[in-house]
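thought: fold this chain, then report.
action: predict
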Amino acid sequence: MGRRLALLLAVAWSAGVAAQDEDLTQLPPASNDYQPALTSWGEPDFRGGWPIDHLNGRTPFQRDPAQGNRQLLTEEEYASRTEAVEALEQRYQNEDESGTMGIGHWAEVAAANRRTSWITAPADGRLPAYTPEGQRLSDAMRSTWAAGQQFDWVDDFDSWDRCITRGLPASMFPFMYNNGMRIFQSPGLVALQMEMVHEVRMIPTDGSAHIPAQIGQWLGDSRGRWVDHNTLEVVTTNFRPGPSATNIGTTGSPRENDTPVSPSARMTEWFHMTGPDQIIYEFTWEDPVVFTHPWSARLEWQRDDDYGMFEYACHEGNVQVRNYIMASRAERAAAAAEGSQ
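observation:
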């Protein structure tokens, strides 16, 4: 789907919400009327490109507390967000005109939408409080995204810094680039290819059991099943523990973008196909070691089979981690020398 069409859809959807004078604390329910085509082996056919770049329109991960329990912006707030997005879009042209290349060429921005946050539950659209252990794990995390960090070895970096993974649920949220998603299917298996870090989530739908609990994986172990006639339900467990497990990175993410994951985490997802080119994607995240309550999110996907995925080089030459460590050691040595004088 082209950028102009995505913009028109966003505007039309927003206008429809305003025209209906809908309760701004509620999102439209996922329709169960659509009957997807079936694959040759009889499963709903979700194959194709489902990039989430159209969602990168300044919608925050967490809601501004001033917006209370509203899932949708007021018309005034929507106009303000649209103005902010237009200003960001202008950066590309400004750089071209000035003969420079910076964030305007690097960061993608999409049309504004009326969502106040991607988080839908709790009702305030914000992450639940950490447990004491969750807070301890969060405090222990390090990342190049956080200011004032010191690095001495590779495990001082989060998994995204190290080009391993953005993790879950982080990988299912839009970022400023590399938002490609593509679904492949074969009998008893769904594969979800993600442009960021070029990972592929393998989701058996053949009724097989999860792998043993002792085996942890960066993206966990997923098992799916088809429910109703238009929905893929996926349960993911067996997450790899550690203080550097995930980095959400989306606008409005928690403190310094760091959110820990424990082996007790469980993610339940629902991919509802509501039309030939629409999927409503929802999930609930449960991690009683880290959070005091579960939390949920919802994103509206649009088909774009023409979206091209490019190489994810991460950091050229694979030297950035080494450079951070050498710079940190040099800073500490210089500070120690200065303190001894």
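thought: worth noting. Residues 3-340 form one domain.
final: tokens above.
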